[in-house]
Amino acid sequence: MSRIGVFICHCGENISRTVDVEQVAAQAALMPGVAFATDYKYMCSDPGQNLVKNAIAEHRLTHVVVAACSPRMHERTFRKAVEQAGLNPFLCEMANIREHCSWVHEDRAEATGKAIEIVGMLVERVKKNRVLPTITVPVTKRALVIGGGIAGIQAALDIADCGHQVVLVEREPSIGGHMAQLSETFPTLDCSQCIMTPKMVDVANHPNITLHTYSEIEQVDGYIGNFQITVRKKARSVNEHKCTGCGVCMTKCPQKKIPNSFDCDRGMRTAIYVPFPQAVPNVPVIDRENCTMFKSGKCGVCQKVCGPGAVDFEQEDQLIVEPVGAIVVATGFELYRITEKPKGSPIKGYGEFGHGKIPDVIDGMTFERLASASGPTGGKILRPSDGKEPKQVVFIQCVGSRSREKGISYCSKVCCMYTAKHTMLYHHKVHDGQAYVFFMDARVPGKSYDEFWRRAIEDEEAVYIRGMVSRLYQKGDKIVVMGSDISVGVQVEIEADLVVLATAVQPQQGADLLAQKLGISYDKYNFYSEAHAKLRPVECATAGIYLAGACQGPKDIPDTVSQASAAAAKVMTLFAKDKLEREPIVARVKENGCVGCFACKKVCAYGAVEEKEIRDRQGNLIKVVAYVNPGVCAGCGTCQATCPSKSVELDGYTDEQIVAMIEAL
Amino acid sequence: MTQTIDISSYSTITDAIRSEARRILSDSTVSAVIGYTAGRRKGSTQPIVITTADDADQLIFTAACLNDLVVYLTKAKKDVPKSGRIGIVVKGCDLKALVGLLGESQLKRENLYLIGIPCSGVLGSLLKPSAELTTETIASKCCECSDQLPVGCDFVPTVTPAPLPDLEKRYANEIARLEAMTPSERWEFWKEQFSKCIKCYACRQVCPFCFCEQCLCDRNRPQMVEQTPRPSGNTAWHLVRAMHLAGRCAGCAECERVCPMDIPLNLLNRKMAKELKELFNSEAGFEVRDTGPLTSYREDDDQSFIR
Amino acid sequence: MHVDKQKHTFEPKIIAFVCTWCTYAGADLAGTSRMQYPSNVRVLKFPCTGRIDPVFIIKAFQQGADGILISGCHPGDCHYIAGNYHARRRFAAFRKLLEFIGVDLNRIQFSWVSAAEGGKWVEVVTDLTERVRAMGPMVEFKDLVLEEQWSGNLNNPELQAVYEAM
Questions:
Q1: Could you check whether the bond before residue A281 is cis, i.e. omega within 30 degrees of 0?
Q2: For C2-165, CATH number?
Q3: Which ipTM score applies to this complex?
Q4: pLDDT, tens only, A429-442
Q5: Cβ-nearest to C47 among A106, A635, A642
Q6: Predicted confidence band at A342 (pLDDT cuts at 50, 70, 90)?
Q7: Which ranges carry the 4Fe-4S ferredoxin-type domain (chain B) (predicted)?
Q8: Taking the domains of chain B in order of start, what are their residue ranges?
């Protein structure tokens, strides 16, 4: 006979405001099997948890139901408390009477009635809960980092410095990401490449880091502690081991007029190229779409001039399988491409700003390249159309961001600061120029950030106009910017030589596809979702996968680096133990009932179901049944719903438990 | 107008089965052959397992050979030798069930010797086993059969079955009739049908796909389906059965034939088969499939019913 | 903000079978956002829609559910890779069966509600509750439960004909 304890939480007033908690406790006490029921102001607090623990001892409770917030919030807390009191943690269930009841219903009688029913359901369920022993699985102490921007680099270095092996996978031919493209960084105006390139070199030289550039994640198998990653190393057409990085091939390549995406298509590169001089690895790659050899079969100049014989036109994509125990996803961002609307995107375009049509309307990253000493103009601010130095530059903030009607409602976070930085860089380079900024409001919290922004206005003479731009159009060699200054309530018209748009930060294209391979969730913009917005900000809901940087949401460099180190710390925490303890919510086969039709095996997305032979003592085969590998099983229960005889059962969600709840209705 | 169906080939088929059974038993290709033999009542037939070539002459094939013998390979194995390859006589519909069992790892092809029947149809009922096979007396499943010639057997008598006359598609018509009803009319129809059920489980016993060692409906912890023959439990039982057979049932219609209460059980199975064909373009056939329509998916499956 | 609540004569019992990762979290979000919806719904949490067995739906109807909601992650978002795809097929088939035996499909709602769609959860639950309220109680399965005795008649003409033929 079960002796169930029911604990009703007031959650301050969050629950008790609409739910009569005393009545719920009184009703719960009358439910069959309930030995003790009480209510308390904050059940999750220390005294609240002690109340639960003491009641277990005092009333010899066998099962516990905590009626409080969502189990997604505090199930762990209470299961831990119950465990400390000597009960198996899986004999504790939570009844969600906050998110699913008190917060969504106003009528006190109705909410109270519903709360009693919810508690009743969980009381019936918990009676059928079984003691579940924790599962331990071995941990491969090797990490995968996806993305070689500053986030991935930081995470990889931290983990590698701790003594663990790291596999770093980067889609582009070089690591460095967007930070390598930046000219100078706020709020200190130090040169981005000066602080970035040493870290890139550290990665290249680190004995614990295996670097796969020009590579993508092909397939992800396995589970926390035991992932198998298939990496597609795209054909570089240059042998990485033979190449010395002398660069002769690039100087001799006859194809010299290919827009370099690293320079936002402002500069030109050859068909065999490194994206920028400080690239890591310093090994060129042949752009097969533009290479004459690949297009017509006639050229091969690079191969002829290459001393070490590293150029290899025959090279093919390679699939490499890397066993790892943890994954850090650091795929970063891209800027909202104002001219093109990605297929299927819910985000509406911004045709009125003429980006893509008017050559002198550029985005923030292009301005970074113009301002960069290693950029296409050698650091001179020259406008794209005629190469002249612009004397009036208009910066427009919140292009794409914070526009619900256009499809992006979030703030891109970095634009206020980088636009302020742009006005300063411009003022430093063009002393007689004037910068104007159209902005909605300045969002500049952060260490030394507000001071920086004030400096742009007060010392560097940028003119900030509070208001949005309604229209841009070309007039002669000028761009007429029509906007409003809402602080004084007048229409403003500026004849600009150059317009810079602070376009929204978006996840990389294909972020959703990678998420699907990894089995992690993402929001409607394709930013990856953390397990908990406040308390688990670097973990994914999928165990063993962690997030770093702008793939999770817009972030500046300090935030990105902090999160990368945090993700690395999480990985190191996982690697601190040789064996990982797993929640025992896994499927189990009842071998006496199984007839081996393997419907379970067919529907298992994890390949957790194996075939097992049952033999008698003489070794004669009696039958072949299914076996679920508890280390691989993720606990979805699709097998059980598929099994006709229910000979496979998901612990924690057994038919008994579910039917008990239905029957309690 | 009632029309006689030409089954003159059945005597040739009988001869061919006998000689093939004799051959495979005498050269030890198989250890037994499962087939049909004459029953005690005139014209009736019953299943038989023969293990010697001398018994081959007991085998027959007539329009009264209704049974799906495939159950003797899985559940009713009492008289079947435990070792050696087994020969079995299969009609097209039986073969589709057998192929389904191959796909569900219940049988191994190399352990079987399949003697296929070029079938012109069988009787709908054994109440009058010596009745003439006509457009009236023919089994409903045969009216909609498109697989008279079994494919992939080890031996098929070389006769071409006479083409069937135009037959009323009884299941399709009945499904259409029910579909045209209002939900409450349909509920009344099935309520009456299911209320007849006495839970004898003959349907389960005879079904080649009900091979579970412990049926979900016999379980007590928890009791998923009420076991007493009362309307609620009956309805649940037939729904569960239809669902478990969906995408697997090959349409041998044995459940309907053996039902002592004449519940139109195959109607449910045909309806599910029709829906799965329309939804997922999947139906039982002669080719062994790794996965069935409900153990696989496509990312672009229809979801117009999901909000 | 406080609207006078309309009192109804019939309060339908709505049972929601949801996956824990998307729809349960979406319902949590509706709570965190303090959205309001009818209190008729009772939520049963599953790890994944792939775990939801059609038998549970039958059980729920027998237990007096007037409306049923089955909801999980959007295609491609399944926490368990493909559980929702399997569920989608399973319930595509099962609803056809229910329809065929005479269950009004307006009583069963299938939906994808992500962890970010608190508003959609509220809409889905409210719409289903109001729709089922307008339809009135689901009596079919309940009536069957109440019918104590086997209703077949042992000496009906059909059976008689069978005996005589034997």
A1: yes
A2: 3.40.50
A3: 0.92
A4: 999 999 999 999 99
A5: A635
A6: low
A7: 187-209, 240-270
A8: 10-144, 170-280
